[in-house]
UniProtKB/TrEMBL annotation:
Xref: Pfam families: Aminotran_1_2
GO biological process, one term: amino acid metabolic process
GO molecular function terms noted in the UniProt entry: L-aspartate:2-oxoglutarate aminotransferase activity; pyridoxal phosphate binding
InterPro entries: Aminotransferase_I/II_large, Asp_trans, NHTrfase_class1_PyrdxlP-BS, PyrdxlP-dep_Trfase, PyrdxlP-dep_Trfase_major, PyrdxlP-dep_Trfase_small
Top-level taxonomy: Eukaryota, Viridiplantae, Streptophyta, Embryophyta, Tracheophyta
Domain Aminotransferase class I/classII large span(s) in chain numbering: 30-389
PROSITE patterns (alphabetical): AA_TRANSFER_CLASS_1
Cofactor(s) required, per the database record: pyridoxal 5'-phosphate
Native source organism of the sequence: Eutrema salsugineum (Saltwater cress)
Name of the protein in question: Aspartate aminotransferase
Catalytic activity reported: L-aspartate + 2-oxoglutarate = oxaloacetate + L-glutamate
EC number in record: 2.6.1.1
Keywords: Aminotransferase, Pyridoxal phosphate, Transferase
Length: 402
């Protein structure tokens, strides 16, 4: 006799079902490569040393309290986050036409941005890449936007379908919102080159589309925070408008702190002022004000030049471990003579590799080798560690293919 007896179980979720299958597998050698969190060489979660140091500093500061932050979060955090993505010398910042508000990580920033757009932007169509991060359509649909896709990944080349992407964006209605992943595209690991970004920028501007950057992996593509910001900065440099959802989950390893920012670059200070006040009206009924701890950690690190430097070194360390895993997996497949061209594994960028394995092969690998990946064939390179794990995966892929 429940009020909720008519509530149905949820439809099967491909990502969650991999998670459950892995959880319930009793094998001692099981390996879950479906997640998106960095792991150390020992397969353990990593807290950056600079984060530990910042936390200690904060804990020792008796002047701190637990008062509410303002609706838009910690002011220093917002300024420093905007500088991190736009560049300290950004004309948009100098001209005071940038709105940045602290949000609940990348997801929360996307959600707040989407709610604002649903309320204040005339065109409700939003384009995402095919494929894209699974949460994108859910976030945008829930906000009341209408989600469409543009071609992005070409399974034949395991690279970018650039022609298809331009064709689809050309056909988008004027004013349509276009979600662009700033770097280290999830799930494909395929990014446009800078020349291609420039062509995308020209098209987006000439068709009056509104770019919404998802910047969840700044630093994770090249190891450099500035290089990974180039695409976004290209769009900001032309004076046009854009949205940016920024996350510190991956590049500072602050996943559970839920810390990120929404930046809206406007064309004038007056527009920015009004946009800012309307974004606050989106935030207020949703969660009133954001959490303080993660913002304080990020601010401590970004503010202090020594800690900032330590951060960039640790970030590079994570990235080079991932690159080395790519190289080692590629070489292990070469050594086995596994049929097919596996160069995509070393060409692809960021945390993930789109292997090109099909669902049958993926199920075989899970059953016989206890290795779990999402059914689109995405593996988290950051979840790979040590020679034994790598050999287990290379053997599994080889057996699935041959
Ligand atoms: N965008 C993309 C493309 C992602 O891969 C992720 C994390 N998986 C996010 C946004 C959001 O992550 P978070 O909310 O932890 O910042």
């Amino acid at each position: 006799n429940s009020f909720f007896s008519s509530v149905l179980p949820p439809p099967e979720d491909p990502v969650l079902s991999v998670y459950f299958a892995s959880r319930d597998d009793p094998s001692p050698v099981k390996l879950n490569l479906s997640g998106g969190s960095y792991r150390t060489e020992e397969g353990k979660p990593l807290v950056l040393e600079v984060v530990r140091k910042a936390e200690q500093q904060l804990a020792n500061d008796m002047s701190r309290n637990k008062e509410y932050l303002p609706l838009d979060g910690l002011a220093d955090f917002n300024n420093l986050s905007a500088k991190l993505i736009l560049g300290a010398d950004s004309p948009a910042l100098e001209e005071d036409r940038v709105v940045t508000i602290q949000c609940l990580s990348g997801t929360g920033s996307l959600r707040v941005g989407a709610e604002f757009l649903a309320k204040h932007h005339q065109e409700r169509v939003i384009f995402v890449s095919n494929p894209t991060w699974g949460n994108h359509p859910l976030i945008f649909n829930l906000a009341g936007l209408s989600v469409e896709v543009y071609r992005y990944y070409d399974p034949k080349t395991r690279g970018l379908d650039f022609k298809g992407m331009l064709e689809d964006l050309s056909a988008a209605p004027s004013g349509a919102i276009v979600v662009l992943q700033a770097c280290a595209h999830n799930p494909t690991g395929v990014d446009p080159t800078l020349d291609q970004w420039e062509q995308i920028r020209k098209l987006v501007r000439s068709k009056s589309l509104l770019p919404f950057f998802d910047n969840a992996y700044q630093g994770f593509a090249s190891g450099s925070l500035d290089i990974d910001a180039k695409a976004v900065r290209m769009f900001v440099a032309d004076g046009g408008e854009c949205f940016i959802a920024q996350s510190f989950s991956k590049n500072m390893g602050l996943y559970g702190e839920r810390i990120g920012a929404l930046t809206i670059v406007c064309t004038s200070k007056d527009v920015a002022r009004n946009v800012h006040s309307q974004v606050l009206l989106v935030v207020r009924p949703m969660y009133l004000s954001p959490p303080i701890h993660g913002a304080s950690i990020v601010t401590t690190i970004l503010k202090n030049s020594d800690m900032y430097k330590d951060w960039t070194i640790e970030l590079k360390g994570m990235v080079s471990r991932i690159v080395s895993m790519r190289q080692q997996l590629y070489e292990a497949l070469q050594a086995r003579g596994t049929p097919g061209d596996w160069s995509n594994i070393i060409k692809q960028i960021g945390m993930f590799s789109f292997t090109g394995l099909n669902e049958k092969q993926i199920r075989f690998i899970a059953k016989e080798y206890h290795i779990y990946m999402t059914y689109d064939g995405r593996i988290s390179m950051a979840g790979l560690s040590s020679k034994t794990v790598l050999i287990q995966l290379a053997d599994a892929i080889h057996a699935a293919i041959t």
